[in-house]
Amino acid sequence: MSRGSGKGLSLKDKLDGNELDLSLCDLNEVPVRELAALPKATVLDLSCNNLISLPSDFCSLMHLVKLDLSKNRLQQLPLDFGRLVNLQHLDLLNNRLVTLPVSFAQLKNLKWLDLKDNPLDPVLAKVAGDCLDEKQCKQAAVKVLQHMKAIQSEQDRQRQRKLQAEREMEKKREAEQRAKEALERELRKREKAEEKERRRREYDAQKAAKQEMEKKTKKETVHTRKPASSSRPPQLPRHKPSWSRSVLRVLLFVLFCILCTLAACKLTELQHQPLCVSVNTLYEDVVAALQNHKTLQNMLQHNSHQ
Fold it and tell me: Rg (Cα) of the chain, in Å, rounded?
């Protein structure tokens, strides 16, 4: 076994009964595989070496009952250190430990513990005490185990609260998701109902328009068929020729001609022509006669009133 790696020299040569002394070997790492092959070595001394850390598979050496790791440079212990459930005596004097892994609480058989000369957390240092004699070291084991169990319980409670909070959050998310899906279903249902109502109104409007068109077409058909249904088409009344209308037309024409002649003889240069002179004389005589006739009527009306 070389001084750096622990290989080269057989560990059996150092085994004395159930004790294996690897102290003062200038070890930088622990030969876990070789130690696992010696289950009889329940007492292991690794003190006064250069160990900075322990490998995770060191926790597989569950046959260890007494372990001396004092006067090394250990900064922390493996997280699964609590797997060494048969450990009764543990010496961690003069290392660089600040805290202990929570699994330390599982060392239910631990009876003796020394944590002196480590830069421990103040709370842990107060719990561990000084360990100046056998009694104090035994008390340190009991108190540290209780302290670590309390930490483990608190972490378990925190973990449970965290899990509970995560479950509640998950339930809340699921409830929100269900509410969202229900709302989406309700919206889709409402949209379908609105679409159905719109289509129904369109259908009713089309149906009403079709019925109105049919009524209109029917009325037009009835009006078209009525003249054809009668045996004879109605005849417009014929006006019988009237001789009085012909005479009236002739008189109006003659009057029009007289007026035109009179106007021509009064207003144009033709008034000095012999025909126009006669016409003008006749016109004046007629006017004088009408005036005399009007004067006579006025006198008669006056006499009748008296």
Answer: 69
Distance CA 55, CA 58 (A): 5
Give CA–CA dist 198/191, Å, rounded.
Answer: 10
In whole angstroms, give the CA distance from residue 236 to residue 216: 29
CB 285 within 8 A of CB 262: no
Q: Is 305 helix (H, G, I), strand (E, B) or coil?
A: helix
Q: Is 74 left (phi over 0), alpha (psi -120 to 50) or beta?
A: beta
User: How far apart are the C-alpha atoms of 299 and 290, rounded to whole Å?
Assistant: 14
Q: What is the DSSP letter of 63?
A: T
Q: Under a CB-based contact definition with an 8 Å cutoff, are residues 125 and 102 in contact?
A: no
E strand or H helix that includes residue 15: strand 15-16
How would residue 7 be classed by pLDDT, with cut points 50, 70 and 90? very low
Helix (H) / strand (E) element for 43: namely strand 43-45
pLDDT at 235: 55
Determine the Cα–Cα distance for residues 141 and 89; give it in Å rounded to an integer: 9
Which residue matches tokens 């944590």? 115
Helix (H) or strand (E) holding 160: helix 134-229
Cα separation, 176 vs 185, in Å, equals: 14
What digits encode the pLDDT tens for the residues 148-190? 999 999 989 998 999 999 999 899 999 999 999 999 999 999 9
Q: Tokens 């009764």 — which residue?
A: 88
Could you tell me if 11 and 29 are in contact, meaning their C-beta atoms sit under 8 angstroms apart?
no
pLDDT digits (tens, 9 = 90+) for 206-234: 989 988 888 888 888 877 765 544 455 55
**What are the two backbone dihedrals, phi and then psi, of residue 15, each rounded to the nearest 5 degrees?**
-80, 125
State pTM to two decimals.
0.56
**Phi-psi group of 89: left, alpha or beta (phi > 0 → left; psi -120 to 50 → alpha; rest → beta):** beta
HSE at residue 73, side-chain half, CA atoms within 13 A, is 8
Of 64, 145, 73, residue with least CA distance to 102: 145
